[in-house]
Amino acid sequence: MTAFEALVLGVIEGLTEFLPVSSTGHLTLAAHLLKIPVESDNFAKSFLIVIQLGAILAVLSLYLKRFLRDFEVWKRIVVAFIPTGIIGFGLYRVIKDHILGNDLIVVVALVGVGVVLLLVDRWLQGHQRYDNVDQMPLGRALLIGTFQGLAAIFPGTSRSAATIVGGMLSGLSRRAAAEFSFILAVPTMLAASGYDLYKSANTFPHEGYGLMAIGFVAAFITALLTVRWLLEFVSRNTFVPFAIYRILIGVVYAMFFLR
What we know:
With 259 residues, the protein is an all-alpha fold. It has one domain. Helix content is 78%, strand content 0%. Helix 1 (3-16) packs antiparallel against helix 2 (23-33), helix 1 runs parallel beside helix 11 and helix 10 (174-200) packs antiparallel against helix 11 (208-236). The longest helix is centred in the last third of the chain and has 29 residues, at 208-236. The protein is globular, with a radius of gyration of 17 Å. The mean pLDDT is 81. Its main location: membrane. Its EC number is 3.6.1.27. GO terms for molecular function: kinase activity; undecaprenyl-diphosphatase activity. The chain crosses the membrane at residues 43-64, 76-95, 101-120, 177-198, 210-231, 237-258.
């Protein structure tokens, strides 16, 4: 991997981590185009996991005051993280060794979750909604956390899409679901990235940390802009454009990389 490739992947991570379009799916597709063998390169797999920290730092900088003051949100984060942690840590080795980089799984998840997002967004219309995460019953955070955990198993699902769908099914408005997805990403991605570094850091090439630093900074800057834009967008619009985009990109992915 070159510095330019690390920069490109970092920008893609920042743009797609919080949009319900699958950052992993886009990164895997970009890796194919850049001729990076993600399926067989353990450093490349770790790179795609760790640069998420840059995007997470962007959310932390935007929501720091809420993290420090809003105990009700923290309670929901803790409850949601329980099923996520059980699934993610329990299946870590299976996911990294056998699932991450699998083109067929990425394509099926891109298209399938796109269809689900369309249906759930339509279902949301006319149903009672919570406009603030604090209003959502605490037990419903378990559902959102379970959706997030399942997204970790299948690359292409999109952690953001899964938690947004779970949030809307739990009664959150589009904006509140997106916001909780951002906030929940912080402990989840910190845990995932930290655990991967602990398990894999001794296998990184000499230049590995420099490449990760480039991807980290690029992801931070682009994620900072993307989060602000998405909250404004979903305040006035539906998730339908993202659902249609997922289906289209999944079809294109299949045409070029499924043989």
